[in-house]
Amino acid sequence: MENREYKKVITYVKERIAGGELHSGDKLPTERELADILSVGRYSIREAIRIMDALGMIESRQGSGNYLVTNIEKNLTESMELMLLIKEIDYSQISKLRRAIELYAYGCALKQLSDSQLEELAEITESMKQNTGREKALLDKRFHDTIIAGSKNTLIISIMDSLSNVCSSLIEKVVTGSAPELQRIFMETHENMLKGLMTGDLLLGMQAINLHYDLIDAAVSGLSNSKIDTVNNDYCNL
Q1: What H or E segment, with its residue span, contains residue 88?
Q2: 59 CB contacts (<8 Å, ≥6 apart)?
Q3: pLDDT category of residue 119 using cuts at 50, 70 and 90
Q4: Rounded alpha-carbon distances, angstroms, from residue 45 to 2, 39, 152, 217
Q5: Of residues 197 and 88, which shows the higher confidence score?
Q6: pLDDT for position 189
Q7: Measured between alpha carbons, how far is 92 from 28 in angstroms, rounded to an integer?
């Protein structure tokens, strides 16, 4: 029966959270304390800790113990990476979800971003023009993370972080390895997203986001530059 008793440990932790006895950042009882409280073996304790760590419920800190965290993106990232490996989902589906989330977050950010966040976005945009390679890809991530943070929705932020983690290497290749014309248009989408936020122009910002994702999708699909130009012209004519 011991191999099932790990559930008692997880249930105990959940009940203490529900009862307000444990909060994010709090240290869990030691393995010995849990074993004494619940009358279960140390193997079951360790199995429960392993599972809670995989779920993003706790964080193990060497020499210190186990702490309650809310790292749901860890579990989401690993789940989606597995789904990609077994071909249950593909990058096209992930891209569609990322696009939908960012469009929503942009609408929220338009109303809620502070002046300091807008200044940060302007600085990131200028830095992107001056950088290439991995540094430019990191700046691109910071730009979009700031917009997502504008939603002030913890779940949306965590989900988008997971989606970005899954696509990180792919996005970096698109940002750093695309043809000069694609790079130019790609940069313009960031400038128009920023302009929309600064002027309150929701339509401009959303058109820029849609073009941004169309360009990524086109690059991932291996479409020609002429097709990318067609995508760009479609949005210019809206």
Answers
A1: none
A2: 53, 66, 67, 69, 71
A3: very high
A4: 10, 10, 36, 45
A5: 197
A6: 94
A7: 40
3-state helix, strand, coil in the chain (%, to 5): 75, 5, 20
Closest CA to 153 of 109, 116, 193: 109
Q: CA dist 25 to 19, 65, 71, 94, Å?
A: 16, 12, 11, 31
The gap between the terminal CA atoms of the chain, to the nearest Å, is 65
Q: What is the token pair recorded at 37? A: 């409280």
* CB of 176 closer than 8 Å to CB of 216: no
Query: Is residue 237's pLDDT more than 70?
Result: no
Contact present, 211 and 189 (Cβ < 8 Å)? yes
CB–CB of 28/67 below 8 Å? yes
231 pLDDT tier (thresholds 50, 70, 90): very low
